[in-house]
Specification:
Number of helices: 18
Distance between the termini: 77 Å
Low-confidence stretches: 209-249, 278-286, 324-331
Shape: flat
Largest sheet: 7 strands, antiparallel
Mean pLDDT: 74
Length: 571
């Protein structure tokens, strides 16, 4: 009997269909059985078997001479089955989410009727009932937290909330809006509070600083918000001090001076507020220690901004004395643009190890190398492209790309009572999952180098983990004890921050690192197919090209140089 490797060699050399058919007949029972044990689905097991033998056909000429084909097929079957189960689980999860969203969307008409009347209905409640509704359904507080805020216990808080919901229902009923108390609670919890625009908190905080002369500094506020906004504030502040005569006009210089002067005026206003208080008290050291420290920081920031303003003015004077007419620059010429394309690829850890591990995917690649590596990565089983966002942005401008979906997750269950009938209703909240990419490219003075600070992140919803106590006992108004289930949605957040200088057309590649993962106890409660997501690594490829306003490459040789840009073309 011809050996497996001989048949495989014959197929690789001659593309002999007969030889490959013999191999399939020999091993199909093994492959199908192994797939069926893991997939528990005959149809899925057939698909896995087809994929395994397709891999064998593709790799026929690459297997070593000492390969035991049976062992190779078994290993590939297991890996392919795990990947297929993970994809199937994700599909089922998406379907489950779609069903939940459909169910919640069924209440959309209810919300459209309730929304214009909700604030009037809330105003009609007495203060205690209104507080109970706000805490329970607007802020999604637990009954214990509601009770503590109202100065009562859990049972009394539950009764107060149920009565308040019933009064809201009666209010809407009188206005021809018919909805049950349980449904009303779900609709309010899901829709009453919407996410504010990104950056609004920072904008309000800054405006409040100027208006009230508060002692908090901009740095203190920046550290209190998300890393993305911190990143944007730091880069924008740094951009104020940069001056490149080849790419900046006199109008921008004047704008920078005006911006610095405005910041000085703001800080001086805050400085003056504390200084006036010092004069009132008599001595600076009588201020509270924290406020005295803030005063010193404000004075220091004023000094730094004044120095930056002086340096900018000195640069202008130096250019003018050297015979450069700043005013003659073409202020109408468009700012340079950068085309950014990001690729998020996720794969099992063993696939990444087979590609060379993390050390191979951490650095800067030229065009040919990046193309070859991407082709190699995408050809492997188990590799999934999560998103390929791209954008054209002006040099020096921050931009954000998102390939995300907003899902609704159940955060808790609560007991509702309507006309003496008790029901358990879910409380839901919105969550954004998928890749998010922040970047602020800046073209340097040589016209080829791109300064590229980036923040990339990926959020995965893993599923629900039951808490230590699977249920929480609550009591109805009639005194009956009912066990309300408790759940905990689990997420994995991967993130990485980088700042590099790329040459036009080059690609930056790096791996995301775990920023937040569920606890071991929570993972034990997760469905195995979902917890397998933790055994996956995510690579990010970012390519930057300098383009003209029409979107054409500025440099035809972009991406072909590796170490230094071409010499400047002096005219």
């Amino acid at each position: 009997m011809t050996s497996d490797l001989d048949l495989l060699g014959q197929f690789a050399r001659e593309q002999s269909q007969d030889a490959f058919t013999v191999l399939v007949k020999r091993h199909v029972n093994l492959v199908y059985s192994a797939a069926l044990r893991q997939a528990r689905s005959p149809q899925l097991a057939e698909e896995i078997a087809q994929s395994v033998f397709a891999d064998l056909a593709r790799n026929a000429g690459k297997l070593k001479s000492d390969t035991v084909l049976t062992a190779w097929l078994y290993a590939v079957t297991r890996r392919t089955a795990i990947d297929a189960i993970r994809k199937e689980s994700r599909r089922q999860l998406r379907e489950q989410i779609a069903v939940e969203l459909t169910n919640m969307n069924a209440t959309a008409n209810d919300w459209t009727q309730i929304e214009p009347l909700l604030d009037d209905a809330m105003a009609a409640l007495d203060e205690t009932d209104r507080s109970a509704i706000l805490l329970r359904y607007f802020k999604n507080k637990s009954l214990r937290e509601v009770g503590e805020a109202l100065g009562t216990n859990d049972d009394a808080a539950q009764k107060r909330v149920s009565r308040a919901v019933e009064r809201l229902r009666e209010f809407f009923s009188k206005r021809n809006v018919t909805i049950g108390a349980g449904g009303l609670a779900v609709v309010i919890s899901a829709n009453a509070v919407q996410a504010a625009p990104v950056g609004l908190a920072l904008t309000i905080a800054k405006a409040s600083l100027v208006a009230t002369g508060t002692t908090l500094t901009f740095m203190k506020i920046a550290t209190a918000i998300k890393l993305k906004l911190v990143f944007g504030a730091i880069v924008v502040t740094g951009a104020v001090t940069a001056f490149i005569i080849q790419q900046q006009s006199q109008a921008k210089l004047r704008g920078e001076n005006e911006s610095l002067q405005q910041q000085i005026a703001q800080l001086q206003a805050a400085n003056a507020g504390l200084s006036n208080r010092i004069a009132t008290i008599g001595e600076a050291n009588q201020l509270p220690a924290e406020q005295y420290t803030e005063l010193l920081k404000l004075r220091g920031e004023v000094g730094v901004l004044r120095r930056q303003l002086d340096e900018s003015a000195q640069e202008i004077r130096a250019l003018q004395s050297a015979g450069v007419r700043v005013s003659s620059l073409n202020t109408n010429s468009p700012a340079p643009q950068v085309h950014i394309k990001a690729r998020f690829l996720t794969m099992p850890s063993d696939v990444l190890a087979g590609l060379g591990g993390l050390t191979r995917f951490n650095g800067i690649l030229n065009l040919d190398t990046a193309t070859n590596i991407l082709q190699e990565v995408e050809s492997r089983n188990g590799v999934e492209i999560l998103g390929e966002p791209e954008v054209v942005t002006t040099s020096g401008r921050q931009t954000q790309m998102r390939v995300t979906q907003v899902i609704s997750v159940i955060t808790n269950f609560c007991l509702q009572e309507t006309n003496g009938i008790s029901s358990i209703a879910p409380q839901v909240a919105s969550a954004e999952t998928g890749p998010v990419f922040d970047v602020m490219p800046r073209i340097l003075s040589d016209g080829y180098t791109i300064e590229l600070p980036v923040i990339a992140s990926l959020t995965d919803f893993l599923g629900y983990a039951h808490s230590t106590n699977a249920t929480t006992p609550v009591h109805t108004t009639a005194g009956q004890e009912i066990d309300v289930p408790t759940v905990s949605p689990q997420f994995r957040v991967q993130q990485s921050t980088n700042s590099v200088n790329l040459l036009d057309g080059q690609t930056l590649v790096f791996a995301l690192k775990d920023d937040h993962v569920p606890t071991d106890a929570a993972l034990m409660e997760l469905d195995g197919s979902k917890s397998n997501l933790l055994d996956r690594q995510t690579l990010v490829f970012i390519t930057a090209n300098i383009v003209d306003p029409a979107g054409n490459l500025v440099h035809e040789d972009a991406g072909n140089y590796t170490n230094t840009p071409p010499p400047a073309n002096n005219q």
